[in-house]
Amino acid sequence: MEIKKWTSPPQGLYKINCDAAIDVKNGKMGVGLILRDHDRRVFAAGSFTQMGWLDPTTVEERAIVRATQFCKEMDVSNVIIEGDAHTIIRAVQPGGQNGSRYGQLVEDAKLILNSLPNRKPNHVC
Question: Of 19, 77, 80, 84, which residue is 20 to 30 A from 4 by alpha carbon distance?
């Protein structure tokens, strides 16, 4: 397995990385976010947890939705959104197909992304 190193966004853009996790033993899920600029400076970071957990795809969808909401709240529109959920990243891209059983989450993310003029969803491993 190849490990990819984090790369800075181009100058003038931000990059938000998001990931989700499930704690089956304790019955909860969580999402972590970090927003950085081209000089690798942390602009903002956040996390949230929620009792109850869903399937991994749905939890990753929630991470992408939360990342898009976070960018909108922070008034950051020049952003690359990175996550490791390839299916979800593809679905929120312009023209992406939404095959999720919780498709409204993907549609919510797309709606928010469409309100950000310069954004690019990106998959990373």
Answer: 77
